[in-house]
Each structure stands twice: as structure tokens, then as C-alpha cells.
Write a structure and sequence with these properties.
Number of helices: 11
GO molecular function: protein kinase binding
CATH topology of the largest domain: Protein Transport Mog1p, Chain A
InterPro entries: F-box-like_dom_sf, F-box_dom, Fbxo7, PI31_Prot_N
Protein name: F-box domain-containing protein
CATH architecture of the largest domain: 3-Layer(aba) Sandwich
Strand content: 15-25%
Helix content: 40-55%
Low-confidence stretches: 246-264
Number of strands: 5
Pfam families: F-box-like, PI31_Prot_N
Distance between the termini: 64 Å
GO biological process, one term: positive regulation of autophagy of mitochondrion
Strand order of the largest sheet: 1-2-3-4-5
Length: 264
């Protein structure tokens, strides 16, 4: 198999398997990361390259190079051991993201600052090097240099990449693209049915869209039958009293036969 792959590469026939970091099993890395891996000098380099690939996966476009060149932007290693990169994003008009990463012992601290017009905001993420880079990082094999890329993808995108896009679009007055608020009502209700009631009350305060969906009578009927079937009337009454302490304007509907108003 490896021989066939080498032969195909030598004649320009080899086409790598499409893969995201979130799809990589242990011993595998996306081809884009494998190509960049040849430039590493340290564990911090390894993790920074993975962060760069994750930004590319979420649609960020590097400044200073063509993404098709399969190389890092010029000047990505800055003086003092820092890393500096700049990106734009097609979904965030006229915005520029500057990424500065600082190695601090066994941690790589990544600070991404997005500028759009007069608005500027930042997201910071601290990543443990040994959580994602193995001791075999210098062996020339990208597949064994990384570990747990699936977790890295989830943490990086959820805590840095997606929040940056969301904040930029909010600042520009553009509609949201992802998150609970953009899901259709039927999917939102299916998700909400998995939560407990205190979590639903907190969710209802996030935005008008989620507040509206939390008012659905079928949702509260589900909670009643899920949480109170076979429970005595006295326990139901105690629960209701505690619930009404938490939400002054929220009232539960269809409370096991009791007549209660829906929240406003």
C-alpha cells in the first residue's frame, strides 16, 4: 500500500483522502497538515500548524500566501519566539483577524483579535502542548506527531474560530450563521427536551428567538410527563414552588392537571 502510494506520488497520480481534523483517527492527519508539518522545529510549531489548518477549515483565508500553495504565510515565526498570522473571512466583510501565539512553558496561548471598522474584539485560547503533540513529533511522521486531533478541532473551533465569526457578523449587523438560534424549531425542541428545567430557564434568557421556543406548550408537557410521572402531589407542589422562585415571569403550563398560565 505504501509502495503504491509512493509510486503514485512520483508520477503525480496520488490524490490524498479528503479529511478534516475532526475526522482524523489516531495515526492519521489531514493531508494539508501533513504537507505543512515538514516546516516544524518544535512542539509549539506543531500545535500552531494544527491551529492554522483549523482556521482554514472554518473558512479563514491567510494573508501573505495562497492557501493552495500548501505553505505557511511568510513571517509566521516572529521575533522572540512568537507567532504572528493574519486572516480574512468571506462571511465577515472588511474584517481582519490577527493571530498572535505565545509559547509559555508547556502551553501555547493563542490570542485572535478581529477588527471590523471601529469595532475590535479578541478571543483567547490556551492549549497544552502535550495534550495534542506526542514525544515523537520530531520523527518526520506527521501521523505519530499528533494526538487527539478530534478534541483539538472541537475545542479550537468552539472556543475561538466560531465565536470570532459570530461576533464579527453581529458587529456588522449580519444574521447569525450557526448556533442554537439558527436551528429550525423542531430541532430546537428535540434538543431542549434533553435538558432539565433550570437549564431551559437559563436558555430562555439568551435571546428572543430561544425565549420564544422555550414557551412551546408541548415542551412543558414533555417535562411534566418525564419528571413527575409517579411522583406524589406534595413533591410536585414543592417543585413548582422552587421553580417559580427562579423565574418571576415564567409559569409552567399543564402542571399535571393543575391550571397554570404559560410564561409571557
Amino acid at each position: 500500500m505504501e509502495r503504491d502510494k509512493a509510486e503514485e506520488e512520483s508520477v503525480g497520480l496520488f490524490i490524498p483522502k479528503p479529511m478534516l481534523c475532526s475526522e482524523a483517527e489516531e495515526g492519521e492527519v489531514p493531508h494539508s497538515l501533513e504537507m505543512l508539518y515538514q516546516t516544524i522545529n518544535s512542539t509549539s510549531d506543531c500545535l500552531l500548524l494544527a491551529a492554522h489548518v483549523l482556521l482554514l477549515e472554518t473558512g479563514f483565508l491567510p494573508q501573505g500566501c495562497d492557501v493552495r500553495d500548501r505553505e505557511m504565510p511568510s513571517g509566521w515565526r516572529a521575533a522572540g519566539g512568537l507567532y504572528r498570522l493574519q486572516y480574512s473571512h468571506p462571511l465577515c466583510e472588511n474584517s481582519l483577524v490577527e493571530v498572535v501565539a505565545v509559547p509559555m512553558g508547556q502551553t501555547l496561548v493563542i490570542n485572535a483579535t478581529l477588527k471590523t471598522g471601529a469595532v475590535e474584539f479578541s478571543q483567547k485560547l490556551a492549549l497544552k502542548l502535550d495534550a495534542y503533540v506526542t514525544e515523537e513529533w520530531a520523527g518526520g511522521n506527521a501521523g505519530v506527531a499528533y494526538r487527539d486531533l478530534k478534541k483539538l478541532s472541537r475545542v479550537f473551533k468552539d472556543q475561538l474560530a466560531y465565536p470570532l465569526i459570530a461576533k464579527a457578523r453581529e458587529a456588522l449587523g449580519l444574521p447569525a450563521l450557526f448556533g442554537l438560534a439558527v436551528l429550525p424549531p423542531e430541532l430546537l425542541l428535540r434538543i431542549m427536551r434533553l435538558l432539565d428545567v433550570p437549564s431551559i430557564l437559563k436558555l430562555s434568557k439568551v435571546c428572543r428567538r430561544l425565549h420564544s421556543v422555550t414557551q412551546d406548550a408541548s415542551l412543558w408537557k414533555h417535562f411534566v410527563y418525564r419528571d413527575f410521572r409517579g411522583i406524589s402531589t406534595s413533591h410536585r407542589h414543592c417543585y413548582r414552588v422552587e421553580l417559580q422562585k427562579e423565574c418571576t415571569s415564567h409559569v409552567i403550563a399543564f402542571f399535571c392537571g393543575e391550571s397554570v398560565l404559560l410564561p409571557n
